[in-house]
Specification:
Shape: globular
Largest sheet: 7 strands, mixed
Oligomer: single chain
Structural class: mainly beta
Strand content: over 45%
Helix content: under 10%
Distance between the termini: 39 Å
Length: 128
């Protein structure tokens, strides 16, 4: 079954850290770009960051650079999102996504329409 399953969300105090995981199955994970997006209540789904198939290229939304880090372990079919110095405005459902349109891409995209496969999301709540 082709799917992405996120985990690691939860409730954390402002200033804390969380690491989200996204486990992939049913496709050749190590060949494709992966990304994280987030969606706060009443808002659109926003790009957080992306990582190319071998980790050689990463991209982040400017406002999160330095606090959030994406990594991947192809041997475990898993992509991670390390979130540090969390703020209440980081509260959202976090989704991972896969760009399955072409393998071994060295460019990554920030628009949701470029990603064909999505997980169900994991809730992150940051209290003040």
């Amino acid at each position: 079954q082709v799917q992405l399953v996120e985990s690691g969300g939860g409730l954390v105090q402002a200033g804390g850290s969380l690491r989200l995981s996204c486990a992939a199955s049913g496709f050749t994970f190590g060949s494709f770009t992966m990304a994280w997006f987030r969606q706060a209540p009443g808002k659109e789904r926003d790009f957080v960051g992306a990582i190319s198939w071998n980790g050689g290229t990463t991209s982040y939304v400017d406002s999160l650079k330095g606090r959030f880090t994406i990594s991947r372990m192809n041997a475990k079919n898993t992509v991670y999102l390390q979130m540090n110095s969390l703020k209440p405005e980081d509260t959202a459902v976090y989704f991972c996504a896969a760009d399955l349109s072409r393998s071994y891409r060295t460019v990554v995209f920030s628009t949701a329409s470029e990603y064909e496969l999505w997980g169900q999301g994991t809730q992150v709540t940051v209290s003040s």
